Amino acid sequence: SQELEQSPQSLIVQEGKNLTINCTSSKTLYGLYWYKQKYGEGLIFLMMLQKGGEEKSHEKITAKLDEKKQQSSLHITASQPSHAGIYLCGADNGLMGNTGKLIFGQGTTLQVKP
Amino acid sequence: GAVVSQHPSWVICKSGTSVKIECRSLDFQATTMFWYRQFPKQSLMLMATSNEGSKATYEQGVEKDKFLINHASLTLSTLTVTSAHPEDSSFYICSAIGVTEAFFGQGTRLTVV
Known about the structure:
heterodimer; A: mainly beta; 6-stranded mixed sheet; B: mainly beta; globular
């Protein structure tokens, strides 16, 4: 079965600093989702990647999927306290990557110090 | 705004009672919805796939008689935790697949006392 490994598990950065979170899969990724969650709350969709080498950006967050489609990274530029939360990567095993049935990584907890 | 609505947001129940959680797709029809469970400081684990008009498909280790799923319409799936026990206390969250992505509900915090 597919497994997703996120690193680091937790991260504390100073406001204004850049940071990167990685998500590595044991199998080829057909659909890779990035979500943000505040503990005990719902998931906020950030981005979805499907193609090898694909890169998407939204505001100060950029996500990439490597050419081999087994690793994704989430990069935050000039972090702000509002970026704090738990970041989850999720893999959709469907060949088109859009079945909606996701396997999640263990999450990365981000704290941003003012 | 939210395209998947989950209700209630939180619920406290006594051990041995049953609790029903609703998941509604607001702007689209969802023939398939998913139910996940998240224990404190852990990631989301898929519990079951809810199929409109047919039986749900449960993941290995999830008791189908304890977690009853009903998907009677294209916009509503319900999860009923029967004879709840303290170990069932968790964060339950549903999702539905839209045109291009999976949308998640706000989640339900269940506490069994």
